[in-house]
Amino acid sequence: MKNGFDIDSNDNALFVTEQCNNNCLMCCQPPSTVDDIEALYQKNLQLLNNAPEELKVLGITGGEPTLLGERLVDLIVEIRKHLPNTAIQLLSNGRKFKDADYAHRVAQAAGEEFFVGVPIHSDYLKDHDAIAGSKHAFEETIYGLYNLASEGVEIELRVVINAMNYKRLPQMAEFIFKNLPFVSWVAFMGMERIGYSVKNQSLIWSEPYEYASYLREAVMILDSWGVPVAIYNIPLCLLPKDCWIFAKRSISDWKIKYSKICDDCSVKKKCCGLFSTSAKEYIGLKSQVGVMDKIRP
Ligand code: SF4
Predict the structure, then answer these.
(1) How far apart are CA 196 and CA 198, in angstroms?
(2) DSSP output for 17-86
(3) pLDDT digit string (tens) for 75-89?
(4) Is residue 62 in contact with ligand 1, taking CB distance under 6 Å?
(5) Whose CA is nearest to atom 6 of ligand 1?
(6) Which residue among 82, 169, 173, 241 is least packed, with the fewest CB closer than 10 Å?
(7) 267 lines ligand 1 (CB under 6 A)
(8) With the CA atoms of 211, 242, 121 and 257 taken in that order, what torsion angle do they form, in degrees rounded to the nearest 10?
């Protein structure tokens, strides 16, 4: 750890606001209405003054970072002053990028080595808006994705799997391939059991054993069309074995934990493990024996 940054980690991030213009049913960090933007901006400037230049990746996260408006452009300019070669990962719902001029200014400030992670909750606008807790979220996010793509920004499309969308994962895969073929990759993500996903669990929570077959079909559709695809936050023992090559060790170092039954598991080193922050473990964890060959080296 050096001046608030861990140069050996890819989990360094600037937290820029707790506010959000969505109100997602499974949000792990429910939004606040307190105006914290300027105070956090000044705090992040101080952090950047001491940022080690060898940092490989720096995240910008919230809340919704684009609620900073021009302050986000200013912040990215500051990052580039201190960290010209660091990759910047912005996590955003993409809605504010419906303004093509804003997408242009953010992309110009960031330059090379800039990518944006954007969630999409469904191929059907009413489902997306219901999950995002906000009307017009779908159309604004789709416009935003097109504007970012026209700026040449790398996009990671994120699908958080939940009870309201898992049955349409294969249709979503087709939608993505046909309508958003410019995304750099697609990540299907298991939910963290914290925040609104606990409060709204009767609506939104789903176990991997319920959605595994739909997830498998969606992953195989995208892979067969040559779209890079990944699975985050779902332990290997809860995935079909032919999906293991897509699974990543995705949980941040500081949040990862393993269950007692993982002690003797032969794939523990390749498995993403579990969220230490989750209120409950997934159902069906099962220690594996001698199956390392299913995992991409
Ligand atoms: S038993 Fe534990 S280490 Fe093994 S695959 Fe399952 S969660 Fe991962």
Answers:
(1) 5
(2) ES--S---TT-SS----S--HHHHHHHHHHHHHT--TT--EEEEEES-GGGGTHHHHHHHHHHHHH-TTS
(3) 999 999 999 999 999
(4) no
(5) 237
(6) 241
(7) yes
(8) 80
Which residue type does 185 have? W
Note the pLDDT tens digit of each residue in 22-47.
Answer: 999 999 989 999 999 999 999 999 99
pTM: 0.94
Instruction: Say if ligand 1 is within 6 A of residue 262 CB.
Output: yes
| C-alpha 2: how far from chain center | 26
List 2's β-bridge partners, or say none: 5
Q: Whose CA is closest to atom 1 on ligand 1?
A: 287
- Probe target for ligand 1 pocket from 270, 286, 289, 294, with the most ligand atoms within 8 Å of CB: 286
**Which domains are seen in the chain, by residue range?**
13-255 (3.20.20.70)
Pocket lining: 251 vs ligand 1, CB cutoff 6 Å = no
